[in-house]
## 1
Amino acid sequence: EPEVTQTPSHQVTQMGQEVILRCVPISNHLYFYWYRQILGQKVEFLVSFYNNEISEKSEIFDDQFSVERPDGSNFTLKIRSTKLEDSAMYFCASSGGPGQASSGNTIYFGEGSWLTVV
Amino acid sequence: AQSVTQPDIHITVSEGASLELRCNYSYGATPYLFWYVQSPGQGLQLLLKYFSGDTLVQGIKGFEAEFKRSQSSFNLRKPSVHWSDAAEYFCAVDGRAAGNKLTFGGGTRVLVKP
């Protein structure tokens, strides 16, 4: 079964450093997402991306965050200057193939990238 | 604003016993509904989903869920729990707006006693 893959699985970084989390979505999917889960809390939506631009973002997704699809297969989340409170599991997800509507599709999640900011 | 509530934070069940996890949502229209499972250190795996039609949906690993419009609920059930079902279970709602954005409940952690 096709899957979403994420790297790295774990990363420890110092406060103020830049971090890039990488994702390879399912190959024919057109909609891409980042979610995060702070330890012990709910999974929260960060951003959705379609047709090479952000389609929606949450209030968490401030100017420190950016997303990019640098080529036909990767989807990245960059945190420009990490803060302690950015420590969380970050999930990449994808949905919706060609011909499918923009809503009502199953969202497939990767295994997550644990980010620890020290 | 749409919200998803999972009233039980922890549930402990004996192996072989039945399991029911509760999920209530608050939204103006019937959303798309999902249950995901997260095993320790793992990602989110889709168990099942409800979009329309038959209100009892079957999923993987022997799970099923029933959509009840009158109660705004989408409870997950399994008749006989296995030790490998110990995990955290998340109910999620897609409000049918463009973009497949999911709102998650707080999760229910299931512990299975031998």
## 2
Amino acid sequence: GIQVEQSPPDLILQEGANSTLRCNFSDSVNNLQWFHQNPWGQLINLFYIPSGTKQNGRLSATTVATERYSLLYISSSQTTDSGVYFCAAMEYGNKLVFGAGTILRVKS
Amino acid sequence: SQTIHQWPATLVQPVGSPLSLECTVEGTSNPNLYWYRQAAGRGLQLLFYSVGIGQISSEVPQNLSASRPQDRQFILSSKKLLLSDSGFYLCAWSAGVKETQYFGPGTRLLVL
């Protein structure tokens, strides 16, 4: 089955800094999603992006399907951006495979 | 708009006791439904999914089972809990295969 790897595993930023999170996947995908898990455990959908580029406020994401990676950009980070960011990919069927996540801490 | 509910929010159960976690979705019909487990705060693993009433697919052999008695209701069960069943259980729904999956608030289960 598909393998999903995320980097870096941990990231500490000063408020206002920019960051890039990376997600590599081992095979072509039908579905790729980015999530933010807040301190209460809620998984918040950020992007559904099996290919191309999308932007939502300070966040944007790019997936290069032919090269099997996706990037999540966070600009002008805020303390509320802290949490765990997950990438998840679906190769076929209904199975969404999650990466191990990136733990982000934004310091004020 | 669609909403997804899970209960209870937290649960502490003794080893060997039964389990029933419930998930319901509002605002949509015939959703695909999923149960995931997250251990140690990192990485989610798909346990079960369902594309319709009474249709359950298991991804990982384990001590748990799932049922879908109604179109928008998904239940995760166990007859006898193990210590290793502790974790954070999340239910999700999607409009179809390959579609965006949306997650509920989760249930934290601690087996002692």
